[in-house]
Structure prediction request, 308 residues.
Amino acid sequence: MKRKTIYCNAKVLLMFLVIYGHLIETRIGGNEFFLWQYRMIYSVHIPLFAFLSGLFLKSEDGCLKQMWSSLKYYILCQTAAILYFKLAENRELSFFTPYWHLWYLLSLFFWAGICYFAVKVKKVWMRVLILLLSVILAGLAGYEEMGRLLSLSRTFTFLPFVLLGCYLPKEIDFKKYRLFGGVIGGIAFLIFVLVIPQLPVEFLYGADSYQKLGVAFGLLYRILFLFLAAGIGAGIFSILPRQKIPFSYAGVETLLVYLLHGPIVKIVRNLPVNETVFFALGPLIAAAIYGGLYLAFGRRAKQYQLVT
Prediction:
């Protein structure tokens, strides 16, 4: 079995950002530096994970397998969360409102279902039209208060990145576009720094309506965010190493790391650690959580051959 090295390297980076972002989430209210980091993380890690998911949804059979896998893990993990909060905290959770980070499983189920039909479209102009329509749909979704029910709002918000991955060839030689990607990424980053801080950080989640967040011109900001995220993503892929590095195998299979990091992060981020110490140790803690989960559950990764 083979895995393309650059995508494994990308998943290592993105999975680290997921863990670190969740670690600092409770500290962004009183620390501008953590807030700045948090905004940058949420500008790219969800869109790029959605893009990578789309890259592996290129056949009807693959889409059906992904639908079953996502639904299976969602039912298992959501049921476990419901039982835990009921027994431990006497709190009620809805089966149809994903708990915290489990939303990605449900969105992935819907994305795979959409791609099942999207892959049947072969004409380039029709694929371009579908991509443009998905961008418009992502913008319009913010006008409806879907919230976190069935993860519908996030499903529509990040759908363009899934379809982009679905329609682009998996064998892209990003090295050819290094200069272009770097320029586009740099410009997108500068615009992001100037514009996005004017919006509430929750806007980056894609889970709430513009009205609830108090965002005027939400459609324009949503579409701008989509293009900026794509631009920053292009910049990241332009500098990612294509060859195998010591951590590459940690990106082969990240599902269990994603699912199991949540409870650990919940415990660690509530420890009574002052801001200075947390600032210094936060990235190391995130890396340690990632590394520990990989060592515990990533044995199968070595079965894969990493190729450029």
